[in-house]
Design a protein that fits this description.
500 residues; Butyryl-CoA Dehydrogenase, subunit A, domain 3; 6-stranded mixed beta sheet; disordered N terminus; binds flavin-adenine dinucleotide; 14 strands; alpha+beta
Length: 500
Protein backbone atom coordinates (compact mmCIF):
# COMPACT_ATOMS: atom_id res chain seq x y z
CA UNK A 1 0.00 0.00 0.00
CA UNK A 2 1.40 3.44 -0.91
CA UNK A 3 2.05 5.83 1.95
CA UNK A 4 0.48 9.24 2.30
CA UNK A 5 2.29 11.82 0.17
CA UNK A 6 1.64 14.63 2.64
CA UNK A 7 -0.03 14.97 6.01
CA UNK A 8 -3.76 14.98 5.41
CA UNK A 9 -5.86 18.03 6.01
CA UNK A 10 -6.77 18.64 9.64
CA UNK A 11 -9.96 19.90 11.26
CA UNK A 12 -8.13 23.13 12.07
CA UNK A 13 -7.32 23.66 8.34
CA UNK A 14 -11.03 23.27 7.56
CA UNK A 15 -12.11 25.66 10.33
CA UNK A 16 -9.51 28.18 9.20
CA UNK A 17 -11.10 28.18 5.73
CA UNK A 18 -14.64 28.53 7.10
CA UNK A 19 -13.50 31.64 8.98
CA UNK A 20 -12.31 33.43 5.83
CA UNK A 21 -15.16 32.50 3.49
CA UNK A 22 -17.32 35.43 2.36
CA UNK A 23 -20.46 35.97 4.46
CA UNK A 24 -23.47 34.67 2.50
CA UNK A 25 -25.07 32.45 5.17
CA UNK A 26 -28.16 33.84 6.88
CA UNK A 27 -30.28 32.58 9.75
CA UNK A 28 -33.48 34.01 11.15
CA UNK A 29 -33.14 37.28 9.25
CA UNK A 30 -29.45 37.90 9.98
CA UNK A 31 -26.10 37.22 8.41
CA UNK A 32 -24.22 34.59 10.42
CA UNK A 33 -20.55 33.54 10.21
CA UNK A 34 -19.77 29.95 9.21
CA UNK A 35 -17.81 29.35 12.42
CA UNK A 36 -20.73 30.50 14.63
CA UNK A 37 -21.34 28.28 17.66
CA UNK A 38 -24.73 27.21 16.28
CA UNK A 39 -22.86 25.26 13.56
CA UNK A 40 -20.30 23.79 15.95
CA UNK A 41 -22.17 20.48 16.50
CA UNK A 42 -22.37 19.85 12.73
CA UNK A 43 -18.77 20.98 12.22
CA UNK A 44 -17.73 18.45 14.87
CA UNK A 45 -19.36 15.69 12.80
CA UNK A 46 -17.60 16.79 9.61
CA UNK A 47 -14.30 16.90 11.52
CA UNK A 48 -14.57 13.17 12.27
CA UNK A 49 -14.20 12.61 8.50
CA UNK A 50 -10.89 14.46 8.61
CA UNK A 51 -9.62 12.82 11.78
CA UNK A 52 -10.38 9.15 11.11
CA UNK A 53 -8.19 8.85 7.96
CA UNK A 54 -5.23 10.28 9.89
CA UNK A 55 -5.33 7.27 12.23
CA UNK A 56 -2.82 4.73 10.81
CA UNK A 57 -5.06 1.76 11.65
CA UNK A 58 -7.64 3.19 9.21
CA UNK A 59 -5.43 3.47 6.16
CA UNK A 60 -7.27 0.85 4.13
CA UNK A 61 -10.72 1.75 5.45
CA UNK A 62 -10.54 5.53 5.20
CA UNK A 63 -8.05 6.20 2.38
CA UNK A 64 -7.70 5.16 -1.25
CA UNK A 65 -5.36 5.67 -4.22
CA UNK A 66 -6.54 8.45 -6.48
CA UNK A 67 -7.22 7.14 -10.00
CA UNK A 68 -6.09 10.53 -11.29
CA UNK A 69 -2.78 11.10 -9.49
CA UNK A 70 -2.06 7.77 -7.81
CA UNK A 71 -1.69 9.62 -4.49
CA UNK A 72 -3.18 8.27 -1.30
CA UNK A 73 -6.27 10.37 -0.45
CA UNK A 74 -9.11 10.54 2.06
CA UNK A 75 -11.67 8.00 0.78
CA UNK A 76 -14.39 10.67 0.83
CA UNK A 77 -12.50 12.27 -2.09
CA UNK A 78 -12.33 9.06 -4.10
CA UNK A 79 -13.98 7.90 -7.32
CA UNK A 80 -14.70 4.20 -6.74
CA UNK A 81 -12.83 1.98 -9.17
CA UNK A 82 -14.04 -1.53 -8.33
CA UNK A 83 -16.53 -3.44 -6.14
CA UNK A 84 -13.97 -3.55 -3.33
CA UNK A 85 -13.94 0.28 -3.23
CA UNK A 86 -17.74 0.27 -2.90
CA UNK A 87 -17.59 -2.18 -0.02
CA UNK A 88 -14.90 -0.14 1.72
CA UNK A 89 -16.98 3.01 1.23
CA UNK A 90 -19.99 1.37 2.88
CA UNK A 91 -17.85 0.18 5.80
CA UNK A 92 -16.25 3.61 6.11
CA UNK A 93 -19.67 5.26 6.30
CA UNK A 94 -20.92 2.86 8.97
CA UNK A 95 -17.74 3.20 11.05
CA UNK A 96 -17.76 6.98 10.76
CA UNK A 97 -21.45 7.43 11.64
CA UNK A 98 -21.05 5.26 14.74
CA UNK A 99 -18.30 7.59 15.95
CA UNK A 100 -20.09 10.78 14.91
CA UNK A 101 -23.26 9.61 16.68
CA UNK A 102 -25.29 10.25 13.52
CA UNK A 103 -24.74 11.68 10.04
CA UNK A 104 -21.05 12.42 9.37
CA UNK A 105 -22.27 14.80 6.64
CA UNK A 106 -19.63 13.97 4.07
CA UNK A 107 -21.07 11.31 1.75
CA UNK A 108 -23.21 13.65 -0.38
CA UNK A 109 -20.24 15.29 -2.10
CA UNK A 110 -18.55 11.94 -2.73
CA UNK A 111 -21.76 10.44 -4.14
CA UNK A 112 -22.41 13.45 -6.37
CA UNK A 113 -18.91 13.44 -7.89
CA UNK A 114 -19.04 9.70 -8.55
CA UNK A 115 -22.33 10.26 -10.38
CA UNK A 116 -20.93 13.23 -12.35
CA UNK A 117 -17.98 11.11 -13.52
CA UNK A 118 -20.27 8.54 -15.17
CA UNK A 119 -22.81 11.00 -16.59
CA UNK A 120 -20.22 13.35 -18.15
CA UNK A 121 -18.35 10.46 -19.76
CA UNK A 122 -21.55 8.99 -21.20
CA UNK A 123 -22.69 12.40 -22.44
CA UNK A 124 -19.37 13.12 -24.17
CA UNK A 125 -19.65 9.79 -25.96
CA UNK A 126 -23.31 10.30 -26.81
CA UNK A 127 -23.26 13.96 -27.83
CA UNK A 128 -19.61 14.84 -28.52
CA UNK A 129 -19.43 17.31 -25.61
CA UNK A 130 -16.22 17.81 -23.57
CA UNK A 131 -17.38 17.68 -19.97
CA UNK A 132 -15.50 14.60 -18.74
CA UNK A 133 -12.10 16.31 -19.05
CA UNK A 134 -13.52 19.31 -17.13
CA UNK A 135 -14.71 16.90 -14.46
CA UNK A 136 -11.27 15.21 -14.19
CA UNK A 137 -9.48 18.55 -13.83
CA UNK A 138 -11.97 19.71 -11.21
CA UNK A 139 -11.68 16.38 -9.40
CA UNK A 140 -7.90 16.66 -9.25
CA UNK A 141 -8.25 20.08 -7.67
CA UNK A 142 -10.88 18.74 -5.27
CA UNK A 143 -8.54 15.97 -4.17
CA UNK A 144 -5.44 18.19 -3.95
CA UNK A 145 -7.30 20.76 -1.82
CA UNK A 146 -9.15 18.04 0.13
CA UNK A 147 -12.32 20.09 -0.09
CA UNK A 148 -15.49 19.41 1.85
CA UNK A 149 -18.32 19.26 -0.69
CA UNK A 150 -22.03 18.50 -0.49
CA UNK A 151 -24.75 17.83 -3.03
CA UNK A 152 -27.44 20.30 -3.94
CA UNK A 153 -29.96 18.17 -5.82
CA UNK A 154 -33.47 18.73 -4.42
CA UNK A 155 -35.10 21.62 -6.29
CA UNK A 156 -37.85 23.63 -4.68
CA UNK A 157 -40.05 22.04 -7.40
CA UNK A 158 -43.17 24.23 -7.19
CA UNK A 159 -46.29 22.40 -8.38
CA UNK A 160 -45.42 18.69 -8.03
CA UNK A 161 -47.67 17.74 -10.95
CA UNK A 162 -46.00 20.16 -13.40
CA UNK A 163 -42.73 19.37 -15.17
CA UNK A 164 -39.89 21.96 -15.00
CA UNK A 165 -40.86 23.60 -18.33
CA UNK A 166 -44.56 23.65 -17.32
CA UNK A 167 -44.09 25.47 -14.01
CA UNK A 168 -45.66 28.92 -13.59
CA UNK A 169 -42.23 30.08 -12.44
CA UNK A 170 -39.52 28.41 -14.55
CA UNK A 171 -37.04 28.99 -11.68
CA UNK A 172 -38.82 26.27 -9.65
CA UNK A 173 -36.02 24.03 -10.93
CA UNK A 174 -32.47 25.43 -11.14
CA UNK A 175 -31.80 26.39 -14.76
CA UNK A 176 -29.37 28.12 -17.08
CA UNK A 177 -30.56 31.65 -17.84
CA UNK A 178 -27.56 32.73 -19.90
CA UNK A 179 -24.69 31.05 -21.73
CA UNK A 180 -21.58 33.16 -22.20
CA UNK A 181 -18.13 32.69 -23.70
CA UNK A 182 -16.60 32.28 -20.25
CA UNK A 183 -19.38 30.33 -18.49
CA UNK A 184 -23.06 30.13 -17.63
CA UNK A 185 -25.45 32.07 -15.40
CA UNK A 186 -27.85 30.00 -13.29
CA UNK A 187 -30.97 30.82 -11.29
CA UNK A 188 -33.22 28.81 -8.98
CA UNK A 189 -33.40 27.34 -5.50
CA UNK A 190 -32.43 24.03 -3.90
CA UNK A 191 -33.94 23.01 -0.57
CA UNK A 192 -33.04 20.64 2.34
CA UNK A 193 -29.35 20.85 1.40
CA UNK A 194 -27.13 19.06 3.89
CA UNK A 195 -24.21 21.05 5.41
CA UNK A 196 -24.91 23.98 3.05
CA UNK A 197 -23.88 26.55 5.72
CA UNK A 198 -20.53 24.83 6.38
CA UNK A 199 -19.62 23.26 3.06
CA UNK A 200 -16.72 24.64 1.04
CA UNK A 201 -18.01 23.47 -2.34
CA UNK A 202 -21.59 23.19 -3.57
CA UNK A 203 -21.97 20.38 -6.09
CA UNK A 204 -25.17 20.87 -8.05
CA UNK A 205 -27.00 18.15 -10.01
CA UNK A 206 -30.52 17.94 -11.49
CA UNK A 207 -33.28 16.48 -9.38
CA UNK A 208 -35.34 14.45 -11.83
CA UNK A 209 -35.73 12.94 -15.29
CA UNK A 210 -36.10 15.68 -17.92
CA UNK A 211 -37.84 15.89 -21.30
CA UNK A 212 -36.69 17.22 -24.67
CA UNK A 213 -38.05 20.70 -23.89
CA UNK A 214 -35.81 20.84 -20.82
CA UNK A 215 -32.18 21.25 -21.92
CA UNK A 216 -32.00 24.49 -19.89
CA UNK A 217 -32.67 22.53 -16.72
CA UNK A 218 -29.95 19.96 -17.53
CA UNK A 219 -27.38 21.77 -15.45
CA UNK A 220 -24.62 20.54 -13.18
CA UNK A 221 -21.66 22.41 -11.75
CA UNK A 222 -19.51 22.87 -8.65
CA UNK A 223 -18.80 26.26 -7.08
CA UNK A 224 -17.33 27.61 -3.86
CA UNK A 225 -20.24 27.97 -1.45
CA UNK A 226 -19.51 31.69 -1.00
CA UNK A 227 -19.76 32.52 -4.72
CA UNK A 228 -21.43 35.86 -5.52
CA UNK A 229 -25.20 35.47 -5.88
CA UNK A 230 -25.44 32.34 -3.69
CA UNK A 231 -27.62 32.87 -0.60
CA UNK A 232 -27.75 30.15 2.06
CA UNK A 233 -30.61 30.17 4.57
CA UNK A 234 -29.41 27.99 7.42
CA UNK A 235 -31.06 25.76 10.01
CA UNK A 236 -29.32 23.85 12.73
CA UNK A 237 -30.44 21.11 15.08
CA UNK A 238 -28.54 19.54 17.93
CA UNK A 239 -29.25 17.65 21.13
CA UNK A 240 -30.01 19.84 24.13
CA UNK A 241 -27.13 21.86 25.62
CA UNK A 242 -25.72 20.41 28.82
CA UNK A 243 -24.14 22.17 31.77
CA UNK A 244 -22.35 19.38 33.60
CA UNK A 245 -23.25 15.92 32.29
CA UNK A 246 -20.89 16.17 29.31
CA UNK A 247 -21.05 13.39 26.70
CA UNK A 248 -20.06 12.97 23.02
CA UNK A 249 -23.73 12.94 21.91
CA UNK A 250 -24.10 16.47 23.29
CA UNK A 251 -21.33 17.73 20.99
CA UNK A 252 -22.84 16.68 17.65
CA UNK A 253 -25.66 17.85 15.42
CA UNK A 254 -26.77 18.70 11.94
CA UNK A 255 -27.10 21.73 9.74
CA UNK A 256 -28.93 22.17 6.46
CA UNK A 257 -29.88 25.05 4.27
CA UNK A 258 -32.00 26.38 1.47
CA UNK A 259 -29.63 27.50 -1.28
CA UNK A 260 -30.78 30.30 -3.58
CA UNK A 261 -28.89 30.89 -6.84
CA UNK A 262 -29.63 34.50 -7.67
CA UNK A 263 -28.14 34.79 -11.18
CA UNK A 264 -24.90 33.05 -10.28
CA UNK A 265 -22.03 33.02 -12.77
CA UNK A 266 -20.25 29.65 -13.12
CA UNK A 267 -17.04 29.54 -15.23
CA UNK A 268 -16.81 26.73 -17.80
CA UNK A 269 -14.03 24.98 -15.87
CA UNK A 270 -16.64 24.22 -13.19
CA UNK A 271 -19.54 23.26 -15.45
CA UNK A 272 -20.34 19.55 -15.96
CA UNK A 273 -23.60 19.97 -17.86
CA UNK A 274 -25.16 23.12 -19.26
CA UNK A 275 -27.81 22.17 -21.80
CA UNK A 276 -25.73 24.00 -24.43
CA UNK A 277 -26.00 21.04 -26.77
CA UNK A 278 -29.40 19.64 -27.77
CA UNK A 279 -30.00 16.34 -26.02
CA UNK A 280 -28.25 17.10 -22.73
CA UNK A 281 -31.65 16.81 -21.04
CA UNK A 282 -31.42 13.02 -21.33
CA UNK A 283 -28.15 12.95 -19.39
CA UNK A 284 -29.59 15.37 -16.82
CA UNK A 285 -32.12 12.73 -15.81
CA UNK A 286 -29.41 10.09 -15.87
CA UNK A 287 -27.23 12.18 -13.54
CA UNK A 288 -30.14 12.66 -11.11
CA UNK A 289 -30.63 8.88 -10.91
CA UNK A 290 -26.90 8.17 -10.62
CA UNK A 291 -26.54 10.51 -7.63
CA UNK A 292 -29.59 8.94 -5.97
CA UNK A 293 -28.15 5.48 -6.61
CA UNK A 294 -24.73 6.27 -5.11
CA UNK A 295 -26.37 8.05 -2.18
CA UNK A 296 -28.73 5.16 -1.47
CA UNK A 297 -25.73 2.85 -1.37
CA UNK A 298 -24.18 5.17 1.24
CA UNK A 299 -27.42 4.98 3.22
CA UNK A 300 -26.86 1.22 3.44
CA UNK A 301 -23.88 2.16 5.62
CA UNK A 302 -25.23 5.08 7.64
CA UNK A 303 -28.66 3.69 8.48
CA UNK A 304 -27.24 0.51 10.04
CA UNK A 305 -24.93 2.77 12.06
CA UNK A 306 -27.95 4.67 13.38
CA UNK A 307 -29.56 1.38 14.33
CA UNK A 308 -26.30 0.30 15.99
CA UNK A 309 -26.74 3.32 18.25
CA UNK A 310 -30.46 2.71 18.80
CA UNK A 311 -30.04 -1.03 19.47
CA UNK A 312 -27.10 -0.36 21.80
CA UNK A 313 -29.17 2.15 23.75
CA UNK A 314 -32.18 -0.21 23.84
CA UNK A 315 -30.07 -3.14 25.10
CA UNK A 316 -28.56 -0.91 27.80
CA UNK A 317 -32.00 0.40 28.77
CA UNK A 318 -33.19 -3.18 29.21
CA UNK A 319 -30.11 -3.99 31.29
CA UNK A 320 -30.42 -0.84 33.42
CA UNK A 321 -34.09 -1.65 33.99
CA UNK A 322 -33.12 -5.21 34.91
CA UNK A 323 -35.32 -6.81 32.21
CA UNK A 324 -32.70 -7.81 29.64
CA UNK A 325 -33.56 -11.51 29.85
CA UNK A 326 -37.29 -11.04 29.18
CA UNK A 327 -38.39 -12.79 25.99
CA UNK A 328 -40.42 -9.86 24.59
CA UNK A 329 -37.38 -7.59 24.97
CA UNK A 330 -35.12 -10.08 23.20
CA UNK A 331 -37.62 -10.35 20.34
CA UNK A 332 -37.73 -6.56 19.95
CA UNK A 333 -33.94 -6.37 19.85
CA UNK A 334 -33.85 -9.17 17.26
CA UNK A 335 -36.34 -7.25 15.10
CA UNK A 336 -34.26 -4.08 15.25
CA UNK A 337 -31.04 -5.93 14.49
CA UNK A 338 -32.70 -7.59 11.48
CA UNK A 339 -33.59 -4.22 9.95
CA UNK A 340 -30.06 -2.89 10.36
CA UNK A 341 -28.26 -5.94 9.10
CA UNK A 342 -30.62 -6.57 6.17
CA UNK A 343 -30.01 -2.98 5.09
CA UNK A 344 -26.27 -3.50 5.44
CA UNK A 345 -26.45 -6.82 3.57
CA UNK A 346 -28.33 -5.15 0.71
CA UNK A 347 -25.53 -2.57 0.56
CA UNK A 348 -22.88 -5.29 0.50
CA UNK A 349 -24.71 -7.04 -2.35
CA UNK A 350 -24.99 -3.71 -4.15
CA UNK A 351 -21.21 -3.27 -3.85
CA UNK A 352 -20.29 -6.87 -4.74
CA UNK A 353 -22.53 -6.69 -7.81
CA UNK A 354 -21.36 -3.16 -8.62
CA UNK A 355 -20.36 -2.58 -12.22
CA UNK A 356 -17.29 -0.84 -13.61
CA UNK A 357 -18.66 1.59 -16.18
CA UNK A 358 -16.72 2.57 -19.34
CA UNK A 359 -15.06 5.56 -17.65
CA UNK A 360 -13.69 3.27 -14.92
CA UNK A 361 -16.06 4.40 -12.15
CA UNK A 362 -17.64 1.49 -10.31
CA UNK A 363 -21.36 2.04 -9.80
CA UNK A 364 -23.44 0.22 -7.16
CA UNK A 365 -26.05 -2.33 -8.20
CA UNK A 366 -29.29 -0.28 -8.23
CA UNK A 367 -31.67 -3.08 -7.25
CA UNK A 368 -29.88 -3.83 -3.99
CA UNK A 369 -29.05 -0.17 -3.17
CA UNK A 370 -32.70 0.85 -3.60
CA UNK A 371 -33.98 -2.12 -1.61
CA UNK A 372 -31.55 -1.36 1.23
CA UNK A 373 -32.41 2.33 1.42
CA UNK A 374 -36.14 1.67 1.18
CA UNK A 375 -36.03 -0.99 3.87
CA UNK A 376 -34.18 1.37 6.23
CA UNK A 377 -36.45 4.35 5.48
CA UNK A 378 -39.68 2.39 5.91
CA UNK A 379 -38.56 0.98 9.25
CA UNK A 380 -37.03 3.92 11.05
CA UNK A 381 -40.14 4.78 13.03
CA UNK A 382 -40.45 1.19 14.22
CA UNK A 383 -36.81 1.30 15.38
CA UNK A 384 -37.57 4.39 17.46
CA UNK A 385 -40.74 2.72 18.70
CA UNK A 386 -38.72 -0.34 19.80
CA UNK A 387 -36.30 1.86 21.72
CA UNK A 388 -39.13 3.88 23.33
CA UNK A 389 -40.97 0.69 24.32
CA UNK A 390 -37.90 -0.79 25.96
CA UNK A 391 -36.82 2.46 27.64
CA UNK A 392 -40.21 3.28 29.16
CA UNK A 393 -41.35 6.88 29.67
CA UNK A 394 -38.32 8.26 31.47
CA UNK A 395 -36.38 9.72 28.48
CA UNK A 396 -39.30 12.06 27.78
CA UNK A 397 -39.90 13.02 31.41
CA UNK A 398 -36.49 13.03 33.07
CA UNK A 399 -36.06 15.99 35.48
CA UNK A 400 -33.86 18.80 34.21
CA UNK A 401 -30.10 18.75 34.58
CA UNK A 402 -30.26 21.57 37.16
CA UNK A 403 -32.38 19.37 39.43
CA UNK A 404 -29.63 16.75 39.40
CA UNK A 405 -27.06 19.43 40.25
CA UNK A 406 -29.16 21.06 42.96
CA UNK A 407 -27.94 20.30 46.47
CA UNK A 408 -31.49 19.80 47.77
CA UNK A 409 -32.97 17.60 44.98
CA UNK A 410 -29.69 16.08 43.68
CA UNK A 411 -29.32 13.49 46.50
CA UNK A 412 -33.03 12.61 46.24
CA UNK A 413 -32.63 12.00 42.51
CA UNK A 414 -29.56 9.82 43.16
CA UNK A 415 -31.73 7.68 45.45
CA UNK A 416 -34.71 7.44 43.11
CA UNK A 417 -32.80 7.04 39.83
CA UNK A 418 -31.41 3.68 40.93
CA UNK A 419 -32.83 0.65 39.11
CA UNK A 420 -30.51 -2.32 38.40
CA UNK A 421 -28.39 -2.48 41.57
CA UNK A 422 -25.02 -2.63 39.78
CA UNK A 423 -25.62 0.53 37.70
CA UNK A 424 -24.83 3.88 39.31
CA UNK A 425 -27.44 6.63 39.41
CA UNK A 426 -25.14 8.81 37.29
CA UNK A 427 -24.88 6.20 34.52
CA UNK A 428 -28.67 5.80 34.65
CA UNK A 429 -29.09 9.53 34.12
CA UNK A 430 -26.52 9.53 31.27
CA UNK A 431 -28.31 6.75 29.41
CA UNK A 432 -31.76 8.36 29.71
CA UNK A 433 -30.29 11.66 28.45
CA UNK A 434 -28.80 9.88 25.43
CA UNK A 435 -32.14 8.22 24.64
CA UNK A 436 -33.95 11.54 25.16
CA UNK A 437 -31.58 13.14 22.62
CA UNK A 438 -32.26 10.33 20.14
CA UNK A 439 -36.03 9.96 20.56
CA UNK A 440 -37.54 12.92 22.36
CA UNK A 441 -35.77 16.12 21.37
CA UNK A 442 -35.69 18.79 18.70
CA UNK A 443 -32.87 16.74 17.13
CA UNK A 444 -35.15 13.65 16.93
CA UNK A 445 -37.46 15.43 14.52
CA UNK A 446 -34.62 16.11 12.12
CA UNK A 447 -33.31 12.53 12.38
CA UNK A 448 -36.70 11.06 11.57
CA UNK A 449 -37.23 13.24 8.50
CA UNK A 450 -33.66 12.57 7.37
CA UNK A 451 -34.15 8.83 7.70
CA UNK A 452 -37.43 8.86 5.82
CA UNK A 453 -36.74 11.35 3.02
CA UNK A 454 -32.95 11.80 2.80
CA UNK A 455 -31.77 10.14 -0.42
CA UNK A 456 -35.36 10.18 -1.68
CA UNK A 457 -38.74 9.28 -0.17
CA UNK A 458 -39.42 5.48 0.01
CA UNK A 459 -41.73 5.69 -3.01
CA UNK A 460 -38.81 6.98 -5.11
CA UNK A 461 -36.82 3.87 -4.25
CA UNK A 462 -39.78 1.70 -5.18
CA UNK A 463 -40.00 3.45 -8.57
CA UNK A 464 -36.23 3.11 -9.18
CA UNK A 465 -36.34 -0.54 -8.13
CA UNK A 466 -39.18 -1.43 -10.48
CA UNK A 467 -37.45 0.40 -13.32
CA UNK A 468 -34.32 -1.70 -12.87
CA UNK A 469 -35.82 -5.05 -11.92
CA UNK A 470 -36.19 -7.68 -14.60
CA UNK A 471 -39.86 -8.48 -14.15
CA UNK A 472 -40.05 -10.11 -17.59
CA UNK A 473 -37.58 -12.74 -16.45
CA UNK A 474 -39.80 -13.53 -13.45
CA UNK A 475 -42.85 -13.75 -15.72
CA UNK A 476 -40.97 -16.26 -17.85
CA UNK A 477 -40.25 -18.38 -14.79
CA UNK A 478 -43.96 -18.45 -13.95
CA UNK A 479 -44.92 -19.10 -17.59
CA UNK A 480 -42.53 -22.02 -17.82
CA UNK A 481 -43.90 -23.59 -14.65
CA UNK A 482 -47.47 -23.03 -15.86
CA UNK A 483 -46.72 -24.64 -19.21
CA UNK A 484 -47.18 -21.35 -21.12
CA UNK A 485 -44.77 -21.01 -24.06
CA UNK A 486 -41.44 -19.62 -22.75
CA UNK A 487 -37.71 -20.30 -22.43
CA UNK A 488 -36.77 -22.00 -19.14
CA UNK A 489 -33.81 -20.52 -17.25
CA UNK A 490 -31.32 -23.34 -16.68
CA UNK A 491 -28.36 -21.45 -15.27
CA UNK A 492 -27.42 -18.56 -12.94
CA UNK A 493 -27.43 -15.34 -14.95
CA UNK A 494 -25.92 -13.03 -12.35
CA UNK A 495 -27.47 -10.06 -10.61
CA UNK A 496 -28.04 -8.10 -13.81
CA UNK A 497 -29.87 -4.83 -14.08
CA UNK A 498 -31.15 -2.86 -17.00
CA UNK A 499 -29.69 0.65 -17.05
CA UNK A 500 -25.91 0.06 -17.27
C1 LIG B 1 -32.93 15.87 6.77
C2 LIG B 1 -32.90 15.88 5.28
C3 LIG B 1 -31.67 15.98 4.62
C4 LIG B 1 -31.61 16.09 3.24
N1 LIG B 1 -30.41 16.28 2.62
C5 LIG B 1 -30.38 16.55 1.29
C6 LIG B 1 -29.16 16.92 0.64
O1 LIG B 1 -28.10 16.96 1.25
N2 LIG B 1 -29.20 17.23 -0.69
C7 LIG B 1 -30.35 17.19 -1.40
O2 LIG B 1 -30.31 17.48 -2.59
N3 LIG B 1 -31.52 16.84 -0.82
C8 LIG B 1 -31.57 16.53 0.50
N4 LIG B 1 -32.75 16.19 1.11
C9 LIG B 1 -33.97 16.22 0.32
C10 LIG B 1 -34.61 14.86 0.07
O3 LIG B 1 -33.92 14.17 -0.92
C11 LIG B 1 -36.06 15.16 -0.30
O4 LIG B 1 -36.71 15.62 0.89
C12 LIG B 1 -36.78 13.97 -0.88
O5 LIG B 1 -36.23 13.66 -2.14
C13 LIG B 1 -38.27 14.29 -1.06
O6 LIG B 1 -38.45 15.47 -1.80
P1 LIG B 1 -39.37 16.65 -1.22
O7 LIG B 1 -38.95 16.95 0.17
O8 LIG B 1 -39.34 17.76 -2.20
O9 LIG B 1 -40.80 16.01 -1.13
P2 LIG B 1 -41.87 15.86 -2.29
O10 LIG B 1 -41.18 15.49 -3.56
O11 LIG B 1 -42.74 17.06 -2.31
O12 LIG B 1 -42.67 14.61 -1.80
C14 LIG B 1 -43.71 14.70 -0.83
C15 LIG B 1 -44.73 13.64 -1.15
O13 LIG B 1 -45.37 13.96 -2.39
C16 LIG B 1 -45.31 12.85 -3.28
N5 LIG B 1 -45.10 13.36 -4.64
C17 LIG B 1 -44.15 14.23 -5.06
N6 LIG B 1 -44.27 14.48 -6.38
C18 LIG B 1 -45.32 13.75 -6.81
C19 LIG B 1 -45.96 13.57 -8.08
N7 LIG B 1 -45.53 14.21 -9.17
N8 LIG B 1 -47.00 12.74 -8.13
C20 LIG B 1 -47.45 12.08 -7.03
N9 LIG B 1 -46.90 12.21 -5.81
C21 LIG B 1 -45.85 13.03 -5.69
C22 LIG B 1 -44.10 12.03 -2.80
O14 LIG B 1 -44.26 10.69 -3.14
C23 LIG B 1 -44.12 12.25 -1.31
O15 LIG B 1 -44.94 11.32 -0.69
C24 LIG B 1 -32.82 16.04 2.49
C25 LIG B 1 -34.04 15.88 3.16
C26 LIG B 1 -34.10 15.81 4.53
C27 LIG B 1 -35.44 15.68 5.20
Amino acid sequence: MSTLVKPMRTSEDYLEHLRVMKPNVRMNGESIPRDHSVFKPAINCVCTTLELPRDPQNEELMTASSHITGKRINRYLHIHQNPHDLQMKQKMVRTNCRLAGGCMQRCMGMDALNAVSVATYEMDHGLGTKYYQTFLEYMQNYQENEWIGNCAQTDIKGDRKARPHQQMDPDAYVRVVERRKDGIVVRGCKICIGIAPITEELIVVPTRALTKEEDDWAVSFAIPADTKGVIILARSRAPKDRKAVKAPIAEIGDTLGMVIFDNVFVPWERVFMSGAKKGEWEFGGRLALLFALNHRHSYCGCKPAMVDIIVGAAALAAEYNGVEKSKHIEMKLAEMISVAELTFAAGVASGVYGKVTPCGTCTPNPVYANIGRRHAGENIYSEDKGLAEIAGGIPATLPMEGDFLDEYTGPLLKKYMKRAPHISAEDQERLWRLIADLTSSDYTGLLQYAHLHGGGSPVMEAIALLKEYDLEERKNIAKYLAGIKSEPIRTWKGAEWKSL
